[in-house]
Amino acid sequence: MCVCVCVCVCVTGLHPLVPYLIKYTADELLASAPYTPALLLLLRLVRALLRNTDLRLDDYLHQLLPALLTCVVASGVGECDCIWHGSVSCASRRV
Question: Is residue 4 in some structural domain?
Fold first, then answer.
């Protein structure tokens, strides 16, 4: 998955896949709420997609923002350990 995140930053031909990547990421962010490592990896994927200058994500932000904002404000996101929750919340804010 780390390779996928690195590829999403620099590959120029991802535009046809953007709707699928956004839908998958938004669904998994909400479904993976208790699993902090998965959340952090998905947040890295979102950040990589946003960093790719060839992608136009304006049309898909309405699908992605609710899941990202949930990660920022929800107290039940991440495992019970407050260190994990802090890392998810910080990563969400950085995105």
Answer: no
Query: Could you read off the pLDDT of 32-89 as tens digits, one per residue?
Result: 766 778 888 888 888 888 888 888 888 998 999 988 888 777 755 555 444 444 566 6
| Residue 2 in domain | no
Range of the domain at 60: 17-94
The total number of structural domains that make up the chain: 1
Position 57, amino acid: L
Predicted TM-score of the model (pTM): 0.76
In a domain, 86, yes or no: yes
